[in-house]
Design goal:
mainly alpha, 2 strands, single chain, Hypothetical protein af1432
Length: about 170
């Protein structure tokens, strides 16, 4: 968990909300939605503080950017309202609907959530803070997939090496 009292004060109503906590159990990239969103949110918050931007809106909007609450890889789990669209296009709207249902969301936070998948969302982000989250999200998505890829392949390599060692010993 991230230990930063100011960040926690800004986001604690979201982090401790029972519905948001469900995201801990939903797979996303190579971890959970919760872990990914927390990482994107905290890194975006740190950048916003350094650049004297609206760090409160960026922390909250980024934390809610993937608040879609389903594993899109599992058939039948998608939000039926947006079933005909790809997950990349539809999940920002689902996340925004969920965010507005459970939390107070201002215009900047809504823009962060709705536009974080630019260019798939077609309409570009309106605020600098939205651009930050868009870039940080893409960075962490690539990082998480890359780590998962190398972890899987390093395990396969170790298993192959173990097989080779065992076959050598059994000769």
């Amino acid at each position: 968990m991230i230990r930063n009292s100011e960040y926690y004060e800004i986001t604690k109503d979201i982090l401790n909300h029972e519905v948001f906590m469900q995201s801990k159990h939903i797979r996303h990239h190579e971890g959970s939605i919760f872990d990914h969103s927390l990482e994107v949110s905290f890194r975006s918050y740190k950048i916003a503080k350094k650049l004297k931007m609206d760090y409160r809106a960026i922390a909250r909007g980024a934390l809610l950017h993937d608040f879609f609450l389903y594993d899109w890889r599992t058939k039948g789990n998608r939000n039926l309202k947006y079933m005909k669209e790809s997950h990349a296009v539809s999940h920002p709207r689902v996340a925004l609907e969920n965010a507005q249902k459970y939390f107070e969301v201002n215009d900047m936070e809504a823009d962060i959530i709705k536009k974080h998948m630019f260019p798939t969302t077609i309409v570009p982000p309106k605020y600098r803070e939205s651009w930050i989250v868009t870039m940080v999200d893409k960075y962490y998505a690539v990082k998480e997939y890359q780590e998962g890829f190398f972890n899987k392949h390093s395990l396969q390599l170790r298993f192959y090496q173990l097989q080779q060692t065992l076959s050598f010993l059994s000769v």
